[in-house]
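A favour between colleagues. Tell me how you read the following sequence-structure pair.

===
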Amino acid sequence: MTNTNDFRRYSYQSDTAYLINSFDFARGSQAPKLRPQEKPDDGLKLRENKKLKSKSQLKKEQKTAFAKMVKLAAVAVICLAMIGLLLHSFALKNELTREITAKQTAIANAESEFISLQSALNNMVSMSKIDKYAVEELGMTKMRSNQIQYMDVDSFKAQRLKALKAQKEKEQKKKDSAKKQQSSNKKQN
């Protein structure tokens, strides 16, 4: 693995000025010479104010400075309000995300409970358990082949219709006899 110092070392090996400077500072017997440092020119110059300003000029400058300060304060307040609203929205988003996660966890728990209850129900209603209950508790036996009877559906329907007609006729006769009795009772009274 290499770092930037490795590349600098290789790039300066052929530079004679670098070699002379390194010889002067590293291998020389005398103290290295200090190069005079130049002051950077930052463009600031000191000037003496020879003009005096009047009170109206000073008041005008104060008003403009105050207006600038008010504008700056308003911008700062607006920026702080926006930052506050942003933080509030993040907090609200985090709270809603936490609630959603809690609801999803509750749903997952309910689904797993449903699956376990469904499997327990399936185990309770299995055919082998029903057969076992019928044989042991109710004393039933399994059907044998000689107990099976086959029926003709058309003849069954015809017999059933005859039976229903006969039953209706009996009910009608009972109603008629009850009406005759009531009329005879009314005549006797």
Summary: The mean pLDDT is 82.
